[in-house]
Amino acid sequence: MAYAQAIFTNAAIYIIATMGLAIFTGYTGLFSLGHAAFMAIGGYTAAILTYFFKVPLLPALIAGVILSVLVSVIIGYPTLRVKLRSDYFAIATLGFGEAVKVLLENLEITQGARGLPGITKLADPFNTFLFMILTIWLCRNFLHSNYGRKIIAIGQDPVAAEMIGIRLLPNQMLSLAISAGFAGLSGGLLAHYITFIQPAIFNMDLSSLITAGVVCGGMGSLTGPFVAVALFIVIPELFRGLALWRLVMYGALLVVIINFRPKGLFGYEEINLNNAPKLFTIIGITVGLTVAASIYNEYASYWGRFPSVLAALAAAVAISFIVSYAGRWLSSALKPFSAKFSKSMSAFYARYVAAFQKAFTPTRRLEVQLNALKERLAVVRLDHSQPVLKIEHLSKKFGGVVAVNDLSFEVRPGEILGLIGPNGSGKTTVFNLISGVYPIDSGDILFEKKNLVGQPPTAIVLSGISRTFQNIRLFGSMTVLENVQTALHTASNYSLLEAFIQWPWSVNPMEQRQREQALELLKLVDLEEYADRVAKTLPYGLQRKLEIARALALNPRLLLLDEPAAGMNPKESLELVDLIARIHKLRNLTIILIEHHMDVVMNICERIVVINFGSKIAEGTPQEIQCNPAVLEAYLGDKVEVEEYAPLC
Amino acid sequence: MIFQTIITGLSIGSIYALMAVGYSLVFSVLNFSNFAHGAVITLGAYVAWAVMVNIFQLPFLPALLISMLGAGIIAFLVERIAYSSLRHRRAPSLYFMISAMGMAIALQNVLYATIGANLYALPPVFAQDSIQLGTAVISKMDLFAFGFSILAIALLTFILNFTRVGTAIRAASHDAEMVSVLGVNLDMLVAVLFLLAGALGGMAGVFMGVKYMVYPSMGWITNKAYIGAVIGGLGSLPGAIVGGILLGLVEALISVSTIGGVPLSTYRDVFSFGLLALLLIVRPTGLFGRHVEEKL
Amino acid sequence: MLLSVENLNVFYGEAVHALRDVSFQVDQGEIVSVIGANGAGKSTLMWTLIGLLRPKSGKITFGGKTMNAVPHQAVQGGMALVPERRRLFPNLTVRENLSLGAYLRHDRAKIAEDEAYVFSLFPILKERLGQYAGTLSGGQQQMVAIARGLMSRPKLLLLDEPSLGLAPVLVNQMFDSIQQIARQGTTILLVEQNALQSLKIANRAYVLEVGHIVREGTGQELLRDPSVQAAYLGVRQNKEEVLQNASAPPAA
């Protein structure tokens, strides 16, 4: 019994570190190969405090967490700042892990390679499990907040995340810091549970264990890594003879999982009644193996090797099947109740939130924010005295190729301006320059008199220009609603602490209001019935609409639409024309539209700018453009033939 | 003294370069860091140990060739097991990296689990022979390793620039999909790529085994070769060579330096990684790397 | 019949159905054009024909053989693709680019013959053999791309947007060269945004719309088709007409 207790306590300690890593690696796709070093920092800090300075456990643990977080900031800032490829970041963290180990081996206070023996056993199964549950609760809360959604968004598509105003560096650093913090906590508990630490404990193997846990459990999930690491700790304990093969197994599992089931056990989902049978099957197999191992150990000497192996196998198979089927039966039996249950739960939750809100009047700050969110759908007040956007002598080269060449045009308040030109003429590059994706070689872009040149993309978005992409860039694994809700992050800034504990006076009303607002936006583009669908499973046309809704959530005054009708048939593109016209009217939006469907452009645009080879070749009303010889030549080739086949004017 | 250090640096640097070239070759075409390369190099050294010490007592040169061939085949098998299906599915490069890490962990620990953690020595090629050059004493083995590495890299450069397959590899480093559209069998091309990378890695493994020892975690050293490749600019062949040799020189200098009486050799690896961090901050594409802008 | 495609269905990911039941054929010696808007699936069609994309269902028969989505088999069988945006190897010389076009061939004498042929089509390339492809002008790069395609001595040349990014005067030259290549006996399947020019030189043509083939006919027929004129030649139409044309049943 004491043995089982030790195994499970160990598992709980590693699960704490794994939950943290799931927040970082699982959602950002960046690998921290030196994560054991954060555990080492937390472990040594806490151990030294209780060992030499007789500090109680809790403050010692907190000190360890704080130091881990600080170090992660020092490591994270330079490496994350340059938007490193994920493999460069991995090798940098590997080096960090090595550096910490070398340091611990050579410092006096850590007693070098000998380590710290005889740490007081302050961690026990009870407080360890409490910490584990606390960790899971905090991580879950974090992910269900604006802070969490920002990190999830970055992991799914960093470019799209920047284009809805999410800054990469601070958010990636935050997620690294959180994972480092939990690693520090885990290290502190480990030190006070096993009562002896030395640098060699915090080696590559430990980092590999929790990394393998996150990948095999499923990136983008907390449930998965939890289950995976629990299995990784428990199963090898049953087969002590195979201890040497443990790491071989982790490695092989990584290869197998990523090749055959890249989403792992629970990728991008948490436990629910639909996937519970899967969990039961896993538990069944584990319990079956446990029983099998003990049968073999107990009876091998009495029954002989072969019969006991047979008995063990039979028991394993039987137990696996029984537990697995029991789980399947139980989850299907519970399903009818689950709807009712979740309904009454949410009713209870709403009452609880309402009671809190009644007891405390909302703070001024919150009220302001809630109202700001409401104004998201307000009409834009147009200032007709000046152009909304003024582009002056804009140029951009890629290598030796001129993509945009001395381009000037302006966008008038409240108009829909068509930007057209043959494929490869530089239209999308113009959008990329306006939204700050590429730096500008020369020229100016003035948005409401403010020069955008040199501003980072996120600042440009937040100043009121949002866009859609030619190749749709949604957050594919989020639901339709979450895609829009993520873009509403700018309206609210409850603190990180509030997010971690889901503070009912700020987080709850804000979340609720955001959901309402997101639904409102979905209604605008006729997507409300798809709110709970995973975005990447939507048909093409609807994905485009969702992208427009997400862009609108940023409350833009200027909207850049990059070929919204691409891949649509004439009927769908006409519907889209209606949608764009509706949005335009409803909110007084100024819009620049890149489009190839001439019927779309001609039907909706008040003015058109035509570019070819990055230069403007014509500008005017649709009628003027249609008869412009330069435009006809650019599009159709010879002028004479144009007369013959396309009598336009 | 400084001359001696430079020679030592060049010798270890050329071995780094051999390994770094393997990282760069694979990266240039498949666009991921093959973290399993270290394990392949280690296995190459074990092949040498098997044919020179454990099973047969072959002389050095045939053993070197067999190790190169063995490591090449292992690298090819690693590709087949860990990457080829990802390649056919056009999986994101993150998946390749995870698969590579898994392969590295698994292979290294297979050695622990089967052969054990013992350190084995490879027989010295030139006994304790060394040459006196002014004040410097240069071991013949160092010179030999340096010469052979340069020769191998020259051969590789020839293959890449003057053969059909080589031209196709260079083209694939820019646009592998287009190469396959021209009728090149990508599976074959990638097999050749891994054979080449593995063979050079095997050679490096043997030199390391002679210089130090053969043991399961000797692949750790290859992380520094990877740093060399990154310093030079991953995917660039001259970059890998320059980066590897540069790193060897820096390490040799640090090993003999002291600050306030404290020798820096303990912190040598920390310096290497520090150099990497510094470079990535100043010039993330490395010395010879090219910067690719994403198309939106 | 050189190429026949039956009920081809191609998907991207789970949700995007890029080609839907596409069927068409190309006869020996023809120039066949496929026109359509961006995102209609034109390039997808080309990548599927050369074997880089695996169709979910459908059959591609080329020269009497069923194709299995393996590019080197398609090339061996006699197809060559000149892709959109050219996709030259900028780090290789023009000579090396051309030699990769003949990668699967070993008949040195005939390769030299074909080299002479592409130089007769594009004389300027002969002067640029040693130059890196990345340093050429856009028009010259397009010539190298087509020449590279011809170096495998294809029976069927797939041309994806050869006029893209070319100045109007070069566009006309490019279409002249395409006709010249066809006269030498190479069958051509041409995908173009420049509907007017490509319909003019085409024996037959298809209109691709959101993955469907919605019209087919001779080049001249389609040039006079009002819905084609509206969608691809810029002729103004009112909303009702568009809807009417859209709901008209596609030609069989």
From TrEMBL, chain A:
Parts of the chain that traverse the membrane: 7-27, 33-53, 60-80, 126-143, 173-194, 206-235, 242-260, 280-297, 309-330
GO molecular function: ATP binding; ATP hydrolysis activity; L-isoleucine transmembrane transporter activity; L-phenylalanine transmembrane transporter activity; L-valine transmembrane transporter activity
Keywords of this entry: ATP-binding, Cell membrane, Membrane, Nucleotide-binding, Transmembrane, Transmembrane helix, Transport
Species this chain originates from: Levilinea saccharolytica
Chief localization: membrane
Domain ABC transporter: 389-638
Domain of life from the UniProt record: Bacteria
Localization per record: Cell membrane
Gene3D superfamilies from the UniProt entry: P-loop containing nucleotide triphosphate hydrolases (3.40.50.300)
Topological relation to the membrane, as annotated: Multi-pass membrane protein
Any one GO CC term of the record: plasma membrane
Name of the protein: ABC transporter domain-containing protein
GO biological processes: D-alanine transmembrane transport; L-alanine transport; L-isoleucine import across plasma membrane; L-valine import across plasma membrane
InterPro entries on file: AAA+_ATPase, ABC_AA/LPS_Transport, ABC_transp_permease, ABC_transporter-like_ATP-bd, BCA_ABC_TP_C, LivM-like, P-loop_NTPase
Automatic annotation (TrEMBL), chain C:
Record domain ABC transporter: where: 3-235
GO biological process, any: L-amino acid transport
InterPro entries: AAA+_ATPase, ABC_transporter-like_ATP-bd, ABC_transporter-like_CS, BCAA_Transport_ATP-bd_LivF, P-loop_NTPase
Pfam family, one: ABC_tran
Gene3D superfamilies xrefs: P-loop containing nucleotide triphosphate hydrolases
Swiss-Prot/TrEMBL keywords: Amino-acid transport, ATP-binding, Nucleotide-binding, Transport
UniProt key word Transport: yes
UniProt GO molecular function: ATP binding; ATP hydrolysis activity; branched-chain amino acid transmembrane transporter activity
Family: Belongs to the ABC transporter superfamily.
Protein name, entry field: ABC transporter domain-containing protein
